[in-house]
Amino acid sequence: HPDCQIVRRKGKLYVICKTNPRFKARQR
Description:
The protein is an all-beta fold and 28 residues long. It has one domain (1-28). The chain is 0% helix and 57% strand. It is built from no helices and three strands. Strands 1-2-3 form a three-stranded antiparallel sheet, with no helix packed on it. The model has no long low-confidence stretch (mean pLDDT 73).
């Protein structure tokens, strides 16, 4: 996903999509 950005913070994976601001997935 070109509009999605994966950010790692304190061992947590955050997926932020610009096309879908409501979509925020937290993966352990």
